[in-house]
Amino acid sequence: MKRFNELKKEMKKNLMVMVEGSQELQKLELIDNLERLGVSYHFKDEIMQIFRSVHDQISTATGDNSLYHSSLKFRLLRQHGFHLSEDILNDFKDEHGNFKQSLCKDTKGLLQLYEASFLSTKSETPTLLESANTFAMSHLKNYLHNLKGDHQENWMVELVRHALELPLHCMMLRVETRWYIDIYEKIPNANPLLLELAKLDFNIVQATHQQDLRILSRWWKNTGLAEKLPFSRDILVENMFWAVGALFEPQHSYFRRLITKVIVFISIIDDIYDVYGTLDELELFTLAIQ
């Protein structure tokens, strides 16, 4: 834990330096990596301070950012509840309203555009982001199709393939974190302190989840419901996995254990209706619950 706390302190210091200086893109890239490596929850205040700074400067932006920069900014700000118009992406369209063909080889930019294209809001027409999604997906698939030799297994290829299988906003955070740690290790100029912090944090969080599961397993065994209701599915681990998906942070152990117990009973009731009970029994059971 001593090394972990040292790394966390050092990363917090780096973030505070970035608040005062550093290029906008550097800030956004660091935050993106903090989130995908599963350690952003340690730096919520610093991250929100950076986001507020970036958002406040939108009106004075020059509009000469790359597709990668603009798409990353659009996605991160929208994910965290900041309003950012989709018009930021119009800079990458030609006079006919189509995305410029010169962007076709910008794999990093296309990947961020693809991820950003899923973050439309109800108040806007989906046309622009839908066309962004179609454009980015088409060229990312072409990128994979045209790969040759050694390039078939590099880190960018893995990122693209992974995103096309399931976009980032659909991922379960802890599963994504475990996958991204291995990818980040392959990226040139990866921050070694951040990588070490992510690995230590993952192990600490995993140990907490394992302790939660041990406590829940004892509780489940003590209820005796697995023997009393043999028709019901014994899916305690799956139910806890759902709770981890909702809140994974170590300090939320009580929530995870409580919500897992609730889901267990919901699953049992579901099995009673689907598998075990007759129609007459279920009608009586429903009346009893009501």
From TrEMBL:
GO terms for biological process: terpenoid biosynthetic process. Coiled coil: none annotated. Residues 221-290 form the Terpene synthase metal-binding domain. Signal peptide: none annotated. It comes from the Eukaryota. The keyword Zinc-finger does not apply. Residues 1-164 form the Terpene synthase N-terminal domain. Keywords: Metal-binding. One of its GO terms (molecular function) is terpene synthase activity. SUPFAM superfamilies: Terpenoid cyclases/Protein prenyltransferases, Terpenoid synthases. It holds the Pfam family Terpene_synth_C. This is Putative ovule protein. It comes from Solanum chacoense.
